[in-house]
From TrEMBL:
Enzyme Commission number(s) of this protein: 2.7.4.16
Role according to the record: Catalyzes the ATP-dependent phosphorylation of thiamine-monophosphate (TMP) to form thiamine-pyrophosphate (TPP), the active form of vitamin B1.
The protein, known as: Thiamine-monophosphate kinase
Species this chain originates from: Sphaerotilus natans subsp. natans DSM 6575
Gene Ontology biological process: thiamine biosynthetic process; thiamine diphosphate biosynthetic process
Positions annotated to bind Mg(2+) 5: 221
Domain PurM-like C-terminal, first and last residues per copy: 196-306
Residues that, per the record, bind Mg(2+) 2: 44, 72
Length: 332
C-alpha cells in the first residue's frame, strides 16, 4: 500500500507522549528536563550502503538507528528522554515502515524514551536520529577527564551466552564481505548477525558510572581509535593495553590472532563503553556493572602525558600498533 507523507507519520510515528509536554504534530516538540539537569544531545545518521546493508530486516534497522544514538547518551551518563527521527525514503511501503517503527518503538519503550518529532522526505534511504537526555549539572561523563594511572575498562555482555561481544560486529562484516581466512565452521552466524544488527546500548552502565568513571566513550569506530580520542581530549596521555586481557567471545577466539586483534582493537560498531577509573574503585566498578546487568573487564592502564599508546603481547613486548580507527573519508 502506498502512503502519503502525513499518513505515514500519523500511522507509524505518532504515539501519545507520556513524559514530554508535546510530541509529534506541531512545529516543535517540547521536552521538559527536570530542575538542575543539563540536556545531553546527540545525532547519528545511518546511510544505506555505508552503515547498513540493504538486506537488513527493517525491525533491526529501526533498533540499530536508535541504539547507536542511545549509546552516545550512555557514554555521557545521561538518562534518555526523547528522540526525533529524520527519515529519507525511496518509497513509502506500509509493511516496511510498520516493521521499522516496531524496531524503534520496542527499544524506545525499553528505555522509556519517546519519539517527539522529525522530518520525512523522499530520497535515498537514510535515517538520522537525534536523542535528548538529561544529566545532573556537571555530572556528565566526558572524554576529557582521564588521568595517568587510571585503569582502562571495557564493557561487554554479562554472560558468554549473550551475543554482542567486542569485535563480533566486525567479524560478521568480514564474513559478509567474504574475506579470505575467516574461520566460519561451527560459528553461529545468526548470533553474530545480532551483534552487528542489534547492538545493546549500555545506558544503565553509563548512569551507574556517574561520579565513578573519570572518562568514557562508546566504541563505535574501533577501540584503539576511540581510545585515542579520550587520550587526546585528556591532555595527550599514553596507554598500555594487555592484549591477553581483552574479552574474547568463542567466535572471536576461534580466529587467527591477527584477525582477533583486528576485530577487537579496530572493529567498530561495538557500542561498548570504554572508560577509565581510579584503581581504588575496582570493586565499585565491578559491582556497579553487575547491578547494571552487564560485564566489565580491565584491559590496561593510562600512562603519563606523552607516553606511548601500546598493546602488550603475550611475551610482554609491545605489538606493532597499525590499527586505524574507521574514518568515512579515509577508510575503504
Ligand atoms: P514542518 O513542516 O513544520 O517541518 P512537517 O510537516 O515536516 O513539519 O512534520 C509534521 C509533524 O510531523 C511535525 O511535528 C514533525 O516533527 C513530525 N514528523 C515528521 N516526520 C516525522 C518522523 N519521521 N517521525 C516523527 N515525527 C515526524
Ligand atoms: Mg513548521
Amino acid at each position: 500500500m502506498a502512503l502519503g507523507e502525513f499518513d505515514l507519520i500519523a500511522r507509524h510515528f505518532t504515539r501519545p507522549v507520556r513524559r514530554s509536554p508535546l510530541g509529534v504534530g506541531d512545529d516543535c516538540a517540547l521536552i521538559a528536563p527536570a530542575a538542575g539537569m543539563q540536556l545531553a544531545v546527540s545525532s547519528d545518521m545511518l546511510v544505506e550502503g555505508r552503515h547498513f546493508l540493504s538486506t537488513v530486516a527493517p525491525e533491526r534497522l529501526g533498533h540499530k538507528a536508535l541504539a547507536v544514538n542511545l549509546s552516545d547518551l550512555a557514554a555521557c551518563g545521561a538518562r534518555p528522554l526523547a528522540y526525533t527521527l529524520a527519515l529519507s525514503l525511496p518509497r513509502a511501503e506500509d509493511a516496511w515502515l510498520a516493521a521499522l517503527a516496531s524496531g524503534l518503538h520496542a527499544l524506545a519503550d525499553r528505555h522509556d524514551i519517546e519519539l517527539v518529532g522529525g522530518d520525512t522526505t523522499a530520497g535515498p534511504l537514510n535515517l538520522c536520529i537525534t536523542v535528548f537526555g538529561e544529566v545532573p549539572r556537571g555530572d556528565a561523563l566526558l572524554r576529557s577527564g582521564a588521568r595517568a594511572g587510571d585503569d582502562l575498562w571495557i564493557s561487554h555482555p554479562a554472560t558468554p551466552d549473550e551475543p554482542g561481544w567486542l569485535g563480533e560486529a566486525r567479524l560478521m562484516l568480514e564474513i559478509f564481505r567474504g574475506t579470505p581466512g575467516v574461520r566460519t565452521e561451527g560459528l553461529d552466524l545468526d548470533r553474530l548477525r545480532l551483534a552487528m544488527e542489534c547492538p545493546q546500548p549500555r545506558v544503565a552502565l553509563g548512569l551507574a558510572l556517574r561520579g565513578v568513571a573519570r572518562s568514557a566513550i562508546d566504541v563505535s569506530d574501533g577501540l584503539l581509535g576511540d581510545l585515542g580520542h579520550v587520550l587526546r581530549r585528556s591532555g595527550g596521555l599514553g596507554a598500555r593495553i594487555e592484549a591477553a586481557a581483552l574479552p574474547r567471545s568463542a567466535a572471536i577466539a576461534r580466529q587467527t590472532e591477527a584477525l582477533q586483534l583486528e576485530c577487537l582493537l579496530a572493529g567498530g560498531d561495538d557500542y561498548e563503553l570504554l572508560f577509565s577509573a581510579d584503581p581504588a574503585d575496582r570493586d565499585t566498578v565491578s559491582a556497579l556493572a553487575a547491578r547494571a546487568g552487564c560485564g566489565v573487564t580491565r584491559i590496561g592502564t593510562l600512562g603519563e602525558v606523552g607516553a606511548p599508546v601500546e598493546v602488550i603481547g603475550a611475551d610482554g613486548r609491545p605489538l606493532a600498533t597499525a590499527w586505524a580507527s574507521f574514518d568515512h573519508f579515509l577508510s575503504r
